[in-house]
Amino acid sequence: MKINFKVRSKNPAYIVLVVLSFILPVLAYGGVELSSLTTWKAVGDAFMATLNNPYALLTILLSVTGATIDPTSSGLTDSARALDYGAPADSKDNTIATLTARIKQLEAGQDDKD
Question: InterPro entries from the xrefs (predicted)?
């Protein structure tokens, strides 16, 4: 599975989604609210309750997978274009660098079709 985690780690929305994918199931399956996590023991108990619950672990795995998969490409991998990104796609500099790299690939006869 080829995924450009370097670029995703620079995207605040991705980081928030992954962090919430871990925290919310811990809170839900640990049976606690944020206000009751007043000691490290309470945090540890909630975390252990989640680790002992296969359903909660599956929920975390699916949430992280859903946050990671690029819905604009087929399968579980990033497209060749997305793998070439050096920064999140909305960056103007990144777009120019990506297009320049793609032009060089095409000129060299390396046509990777997605």
Answer: Phage-like_holin
